[in-house]
Amino acid sequence: MPKINLLPKQISELIAAGEVVERPASVVKELAENSIDALSKHITVEIQHGGITYIRITDDGCGISYSDVPCAFLRHATSKISTADDLDSISTLGFRGEALAASSSVSKIELFTKTSGEQFGTHYIIEGGNEVVYEENGCPDGTTIIVRDLFYNTPARMKFLKKDVSEGNAVSAVIERMALSHPEISFKLIRDGKQTLSTSGDGKLDSAIYSVLGREFSSSLIPLNGESDRIKVTGYVCKPVFCRQSRAGQFIFLNGRLVNSKTVMAAVEQAYKNSAMIGKFPAFLINVEMPFDTVDVNVHPAKTEVRFSDEKRIFEAVHYAVKNALSVGDTRPVIDVSANLKKTFFEHMDVKQYRQQAVSTDALDTKTVAEKVYENVIENPLTVLRQDTTPLFTKKVDVNISVCDDIPEPKQVVENEYKPTEEVKFIGEAFSTYIVAEKGNSIFLIDKHAAHERMLFNKLKSEEKAQTQVLLTPVTVRMSANEYDAVIKNGQLLEKAGFEVDDFGNGTVVVRAVPSVLGDADIELCLTEVASSLLEKGSVEIEMLERLYHTVACKAAIKAGYITSKTELLELAKKVLSNDDIMYCPHGRPVAFEIKKYDLEKQFGRIQ
Ligand code: ADP
Ligand code: MG
User: Fold this and answer.
1) Rounded to 5 degrees, what are φ and ψ at 475?
2) Nearest atom within ligand 1 for CA of residue 61
């Protein structure tokens, strides 16, 4: 029988440390949260070797008084709660009193701290949980904490650390998220001597977003402003056309703390239903503010997964706010033809009624649908139209309406004597999205974006190496730490897909060349999507390359909802209908539907 031992304090702390201290980023997170809890206005984080050898966090917060310092490094030592009741109304980030104890047991920590009420500050060194120095020391108000040689005494843990760059990027990601959730605090991050992030701390979310996420993200946002049932929802959501291939651009804050909440995520994504493409995810930054007593944050040691006591209320408040913002914001071109096309001649009318109706609307009916839509567009300039930027087709700025009036159609159709033709005839376009075409004994509905995307995808896949177009002016793209990491790591793969990208440092890359098919599509946006596609699961090269092709094809393809010229649409229809390999888009959605003449005739009772 093995003997049961009570573990010595040192060992039990090491075990506890495993829960809190996983990697440098988790130490930085805990320490920076302490600085926030201490009501600091400026927080500077400096790391070396991804934080593995050196982390220094300096703040101008309340400091720790001389007599409290050793106590702060004990487990369950916290100034933030004292009774069980306090657990129900937690407003600080830390409260478990574990971070300092855990970190100090697996590293060498040096602390300088001073409260404003003290004349001198405190200098304290603790290594592997053992106090080495504890003395008074002249230092400014606030706290500086230095963590050296993380996991120096636990080599097994050390082995799990990734390369310096990856650990450093994880630290960046932590600070970026904090900076976003606290625009009122100025954050600085210095990596190996270089400042990589600096926020102003002016209290404006916009400034923080700009500093952290860069221009492309900032320029595609719609502001949110909703309040219902004591729940305030603020922040930004992206325009539907800027939806991304992953959820990397989603940030949810609860009372200022970055959290994960499936409820909030689902509420936002559902609000985008019908305006974003299937399989795409909105980027957003949402801050939900609500009374503390309705949230349970004491759920997960990393304290990011939240539960709400009333999930339904949260869902509704968020969903409503986002829906509202999307309907107010200029999110996509819409052509409302209903005003001009009020016709009621089908269904229940008898022949007499129908004739009368037909006569009275005769004048109107001599106009083609195209003319009516055109008039409507001219009358309502706000509903016009974004220019498409597809490279394969010529660009058109003018409004082209989809009707077959001037497409040459050599074969005359004599009434009751239908001559099937294998030529593709362009009938029109529905909802600025679906090409209606006729071929042989069928009518086809073709999703123009899906079809074009599939064609480009096939083309890219069939090429040995994608054709490249060198940019006259290289474009710099700033991205999140994870995305940046993925792009730098996959330079060769990107090159194969036609991108030439150089590291510019500080989460920024320079794009020097792009796949030719992209034409003048938004390169910044495209690269961000490429980066997030690289982050998706599955690291087999061929899979990753296919995902890159998907992204490029999707970006380069003509868009649903945008105006495309008739000639282009006919060209596209011809390609689709002459090539069996284009029946599904790269995401697996169907490209075209067929309606057989025979089925139509049966529907209309022409044949039995
Ligand atoms: P917790 O944050 O959960 O209370 P920690 O181990 O992280 O536990 O910190 C213990 C205590 O040390 C805190 O409750 C706080 O009183 C004090 N402390 C830690 N860091 C700072 C800081 N940067 N400024 C002021 N006080 C701090
Ligand atoms: Mg803490």
Assistant:
1) -110, 130
2) 24
| Ligand 1 in reach of 61 Cβ (< 6 A) | yes
User: In the structure encoding, which two tokens stand for residue 522, read together?
Assistant: 């938004």
Closest CA to 526 of 507, 553, 559: 553
How much is the mean pLDDT over the chain?
77
Please state, in angstroms and rounded to a whole number, the distance separating the CA atoms of residues 407 and 435.
14
The β-bridge relationship of strands 284-289 and 250-254 is: parallel
CA angle 76, 80, 82 (to 5 degrees): 70
Indicate the helix (H) or strand (E) that contains 544. helix 541-556
122 CB within 6 A, ligand 1:
no
Cβ atoms within 10 Å, residue 49: 18
Rg (CA), the chain: 31
Q: Tokens 């992953």, residue? A: 246
Alpha carbon of 133 to ligand 2 centroid (Å): 22
Which of 203, 169, 213, 136 shows the shortest CA–CA distance to 49?
Answer: 169
Query: Alpha-carbon distance 560 to 275, whole Å?
Result: 11
> Does the CB atom of residue 63 touch ligand 1 within 6 A?
yes
DSSP assignment, residue 244?
B
**Nearest atom of ligand 1 to the alpha carbon of 73:** 6
Give percent helix, percent strand, percent coil of the chain, each to the nearest 5.
Answer: 40, 25, 40
Q: How far is the CA of 256 from the centre of ligand 2 (A)?
A: 16
Residue with tokens 């096939």: 458
Across the range 573-601, mean pLDDT stands at: 79
Higher pLDDT, 67 or 21: 67
Q: How far apart are CA 449 and CA 98, in angstroms?
A: 53
Indicate the burial class of 502 (C-beta count within 10 angstroms; 0-12, 13-18, 19 or more).
middle
CB half-sphere exposure, 30, CA atoms < 13 A: 24
Q: What is the DSSP string of 470-514?
A: EEEEEEEEE--HHHHHHHHHTHHHHHHTT-EEEE-STTEEEEEEE
pLDDT over 50 (residue 381):
no
pLDDT confidence of residue 364? 36
Which ligand has the minimum distance to the alpha carbon of residue 45? 1
Which whole number is the average pLDDT over 395-401?
29
| Mutation probe of ligand 1 site: the residue of 79, 92, 124, 146 with most atoms within 8 A of C-beta | 79
Kindly state if the Cβ of 13 falls inside 6 Å of ligand 1. Answer: no
